[in-house]
Every structure is written in C-alpha cells, then in structure tokens.
Design a protein that fits this description.
This protein has 27 helices and 5 strands. The protein has a 3-stranded antiparallel β-sheet with strand order 3-4-5. The longest helix is centred in the C-terminal third of the chain and has 24 residues. The two termini are about 30 Å apart. About 40% of the residues are buried.
C-alpha cells in the first residue's frame, strides 16, 4: 500500500510535500504505508534533518505520549513531524528545487550545510548529455542495469538512476576491471540503507583507483546532486579512457618517438601528451600539413579530426575527407561527426563542443578514437620496459586520490622535482612545509639544481618526522632511484594512514603496528571469532578470512559467509581477498591495497588494510557515543 497523498501544508510548499512523500515511499520499502519509529532518525536524515540521538528519542517519546502505541508512523504523522522541525529550525534549503534551467548551463544551490547561503554550482548540460550517452553504451548489455536504461540525457534521469549506487559500481569496474567484487553490490531489496552501502562502496573504490573525492558522501550522491555526480563520473570515465594508453597494451606507440628519443622518454609522457603525439603522427601520414598542440583551439575547425578519422578508419568503412570543403565551421563539425559515426565513434562531443574547444569532452573523444582504432603497426621487435608493479600503482592511486597536482602518471618521473612530495607532507602533517623554501617554477638555466634542492628539503622533512631515510639523499629522488623513492613514499603513506587513526584515538597514544595488532585480535575475540594474527607477515592472512571476520566483527551481519571459500587454493584465496577488500570499502574503509597484497601477505599493504578498518571501528564508536550521523551517511 503506497503512502496516501500529502495533505495541504502551511509550512511546506507543494513541491516540498511531493518530495517528502517520495522520500517516505522510498523508506517504506514494503509499501505498507508505515515506517517504524525505530527508523525515525534515519528517515529524518534522508529528508535533510540530521539530529543527535537524544533529540530523536525525545521526538519518539512525544509521539508515544500522543497515543501512538503501535510503534509506527503513517505519512501524515511523519509530515507533521517534519513541519514542526522546519518551523523550529530553518531547513528550507534542503527542500529547494535544485535546477533552474538556462540554455546550456544549469545552476544548483549550495549543496552542503557548510555552503554559504545563495552559493550555486554550475553544471554543463553538454557533459550531462555526454556522460549519460557513454554510460548507456557501456552498460546496455549488463543485465543488472536494464532497469535503468534508456536514460533521457536531457533531464535529470542520470542523477535519479545513479542514486542506488549500482551504475556507479558498474562504471568503476568498466574503467578498471575487477576493482569491485560483484558479490558485494546490493542488487535487490534496495532500501535506502542498502543504497547507501552501494554508494559507500563506489566512493571508496573510486578513491582506490585514483579519483579525488573531496567532500562527497553517500548522502550527496543519493540526493542526486548534479555537480557531485558528474564530478565523480568524469573522473571514473577519464581513468577508463586513458588506462590503456601505454606500451603494454599498445607496443606500436614506439612509432611516436621522435629523433633522439628513447622508450624512457615515452614512459615519462602523460596520456594526454601521448594522444596529441598520436594525432600528429597520423596527421603527418595524411599529408594534410596540420599539427596540433592542444585539444581545444587547434581542433576547433574540425580539419585535424577530419584527416585523423580518414587515417585510422578501417578500409571499406566509407570514411572520407569531404567535410573539409564545408565553409561553416559548425556544419563542418557535424559532417565530421557523421564520419566518426561510420566507425562507431560518435561519442562525447557535439558540433558545438568541437567548435568551442571543450577540453574535457574533446579529450574523451580522442581517447575513445585511440582505444577503438589506434592504427599503429606492431613493431618488428618489441622493446623491453619495466611494467608498473601493484605496489607502485597503489601508491600512485593514493597520491592522485588526495588531489595532488600535477596528476601522477609515472611515479618516479613525476616525483623527481619534489613538488608532489611537499603536498603529501602537508597532508601528513599540515603546516610542516615551509613553502618559502620550495621552488615551484624552475628556471631553464638552474632547473636541475633547483629540483635537487627541492628533493633535499623533502628528505630533510622526512627526517624531522622520524622517517627512516638512511642512505637516501635528494639526488636519489631526483634521479628516480626506484628502491629509495619507494621507501620514502611508503613512509609518507604509512604516516598519513596512522595520522587519521591517531586523530580518532581518545587515549592520546601514538598509533603503531603493535596497537593495531592488539586491536585486531581483541575485536575478533570480543565478537566470538576464533582467528587471530601474530603480525602483519602472518601467513594465515593470505586466505583473506581473518580480514572477512574482522569486517563482520565491526559491522555484525554484513558478511555473506555463504560466498566465502574455505579451500586453500590460490583461486580461493584470491576470491576471498577480492571479497574482503570490497567489503572493507563497503563499510567505509578507505582501502587502497589490492587483493594480491593480501594473498601475498605484503606486510606494508596488509598493515594499511587493518589500520583503515580500525579507523572505521573507532569512527562508528565515536558516532554512537556522540549520537551523530550514522556511518553510511558519511
């Protein structure tokens, strides 16, 4: 039974009443027209009222004193409570209509409690359309996503259908396969709590692949805040598009090397720079006389695209260069995109995006062209190069998730001038960097000397923070010494993780390995679990079950033990490790480690997993003590 129609209100507008009723129906999963009083706190939170436990208890007592003895609230009773709270406090902002339309820009009111009254966020309609189309193309064959498709790109359909987290999880796996264990995604009986679990899983998994998630919570995405949904989607899509632009997947990239360059020079280039090289390579082969330096103004007349498409299109596709004869640039762009459509690559950009030189969407357009039709010959002899290790990838993703600039593509090269290291130090211990000592812009004549000076100061800061840096000098970092650079980066990541833990520990004791191990074993024992660990090298960790038990101890009932494997094979161990990592993220742990780190018992990464779970446990205890927001809404 659906909730009855909302009554006329002198406090809530018609729009607010309709939104309140929609939220009530969503909370009322079984459709019986009631919500339980014990769910009142979460229900109020879903409509914008974040109240401490004691206030909710007072509300429940007041309801019960009014003769409500069955422990349930009908919609009209819930509406009355909301009206009372709205009169008491000004929560009107939470009910404002989000979208006020303009031709191509949509403005949205302040999205957080910290936002200044009247703050607006602009969303480009063209990006909404492009991302909706791309998601539809990528998920159209996924049986779990059929209920969401098709989506109307011109409305807020994307935000409504992304609110349960399933599409976000699926897109993350499209960009970086196997990031999320499908067994951990809630696909049925999608109450608001199970949706929030999915969104938490998506947010923490996005961070683990290098997305910068700042001030974005599950509640924000569930409410469909456009600028935040598009922000996380763009990062996920971008990572997926640029992920395969490397020598491992495309050995033919060696053809882009210019005279005097080596493989090492190519490895130092960002994916964006490689794409521009790739476009110019094909433009030279076309004989059109064009070269580009960017994907904005240099492609706005469509001529470069016209010749690129002609070069990379398979024989017999019918792609031609006739569009260059069109005098009107907008119509020329449309004709060019019709050629792209012949090879299934009309994605991301409209004619206007091309003419305007939209950098984000043009990057996506070109990256998709490369992924579909690189048109690079396999070299006669494949060059040897060292592939990025799982540990290096984990460190790189951690750095990028913090929002360091520039984006870290190749760790040793990108850290060699020290600037990213200083940003990491500032995250570990805010204010520890004396920025007056940092060279931010290098002169041509002194660049190498200035970079070494930066790196020397980076080592000096590490020593002040009690890092073990014996035998490590600034020149080692500058020259990209892999072993020594990894040693410094690991200690930065460890210090960052422990700093979060220390901030939550009320005992005031500095966090350390032994304290974490003791907490793991005590938590397991208190929950009636039989497993324990001796240290972070304990071989019993390799099957993932101790991590799984710990997650269930932190959040009882969260683990589906029917999918946990008891066998000791490598396949079983990896399956359990995948499940453990995804479940840890689902309950709120910002885990960067990979499943193979658990299977191989990589002591460094194992330590971060347990530390992150301890952070989740302490936060849950703090929230319970203070009567604050439930963890799933953070």
């Amino acid at each position: 039974m659906a909730a009855p129609a909302s009554r006329t209100s002198m406090v809530l507008s018609r729009e607010e009443c309709d939104e309140l009723r929609a939220n009530f129906d969503e909370i009322d999963v079984n459709g019986n027209g009631f919500i339980e009083l014990e769910e009142l706190r979460e229900a109020l939170e879903c409509v914008g009222f974040r109240l401490p436990k004691y206030e909710v208890r007072d509300l429940i007592k007041e309801v019960e004193r009014g003769g409500k003895a069955d422990g349930r609230l009908e919609f009209h009773e819930f509406q009355s409570l909301v009206e009372k709270l709205k009169r008491k406090k000004d929560f009107g902002r939470g009910f404002k209509k989000l979208i006020s339309k303009r031709e191509n820009i949509e403005t949205h009111g302040g999205m957080t409690e910290a936002s200044v009254e009247g703050t607006t966020h602009s969303v480009k309609k063209e990006e909404q359309v492009a991302f909706t189309d791309w998601i539809t193309r990528n998920l159209q064959d996924d049986p779990d996503c059929q209920k969401y498709l098709p989506m109307n790109p011109d409305t807020g359909d994307l935000y409504k259908k992304a609110k349960d987290g399933i599409m976000l999880c699926k897109m993350i796996n499209k960009s970086v396969p196997d990031t999320i264990d499908e067994r951990t995604i809630n696909k049925n009986n999608l109450s608001i709590y199970r949706m929030h679990e999915n969104l938490m899983l998506a947010i923490n998994s996005a961070q683990a692949i290098g997305c910068n998630i700042v001030n974005i919570g599950a509640d924000d995405l569930h409410q469909g805040k456009p600028h935040l949904v598009l922000g996380i989607l763009w990062q996920v899509i971008r990572i997926g598009l640029l992920n395969a632009i490397n020598l491992k997947d495309h050995p033919g990239l060696v053809a882009l090397l210019e005279e005097g360059e080596t493989i090492e020079d190519l490895l130092k280039m960002s994916p964006e720079a490689i794409l521009i090289r790739w476009v110019n390579y094909h433009l030279r082969r076309s004989g059109c006389g064009r070269q580009i330096k960017n994907l904005t103004g240099d492609i706005s007349d469509s001529v470069a695209y016209i010749h690129l498409l002609h070069q990379i299109a398979p024989a017999g596709s019918g792609v031609h260069t006739g569009a260059q004869n069109e005098g009107d640039v907008l119509q020329r762009a449309e004709l060019m995109l019709q050629e792209a459509d012949k090879i299934g690559c009309r994605s991301f950009v409209t004619p206007q995006n091309v003419v305007d030189g939209n950098d984000k969407l043009n990057l996506a357009f070109v990256a998709n062209l490369f992924n579909m039709y690189p048109a690079l010959d396999k070299p006669a002899t494949e060059e040897e190069y060292i592939e990025e290790t799982a540990e290096e990838r984990t460190y790189r993703n951690w750095m990028n998730s913090l929002g360091v600039l520039p984006f870290v593509c190749h760790m040793y090269n990108d850290l060699c001038d020290g600037r990213i290291l200083f940003q990491l130090y500032d995250y570990v211990q805010p204010g520890c960097v004396d920025w007056s000592k940092v060279v931010k812009t290098f002169s041509k004549m002194k660049a190498n000397f200035q970079k070494i000076e930066n790196c020397n100061y980076a080592v000096e800061l590490g020593l002040k923070l009690k890092f073990s840096l014996v035998g490590i000098g600034g020149k080692d970092i500058n020259e990209g010494n892999q072993v020594l650079t990894l040693a410094l980066v690991w200690q930065l990541m460890r210090a960052y993780t422990l700093s979060i833990l220390s901030s939550l520990d009320k005992s005031g004791k500095p966090a350390g390995d032994q304290a974490i191990i003791q907490w793991v074993n005590k938590t397991l024992k208190d929950a009636g679990k039989s497993r324990e660990i001796k240290n972070f090298q304990d071989s019993s960790i390799s099957d993932g079950q101790v991590v799984i038990d710990l997650i269930d101890a932190i959040k009882p009932g969260s683990i589906r033990y029917d999918v946990v494997r008891d066998g000791g094979s490598d396949e079983d161990k990896l399956a359990n490790a995948k499940y453990a990592i995804s479940m840890a993220r689902k309950i709120g742990a910002r885990v960067y480690a990979l499943p193979e780190h658990i299977v191989s018992v990589n002591s460094k990464m194992v330590m971060t997993v347990f530390c992150c779970l301890m952070v989740v446990s302490l936060r849950r205890q703090t929230l319970d003590d203070e009567g604050d927001v439930p963890e799933f809404a953070k």
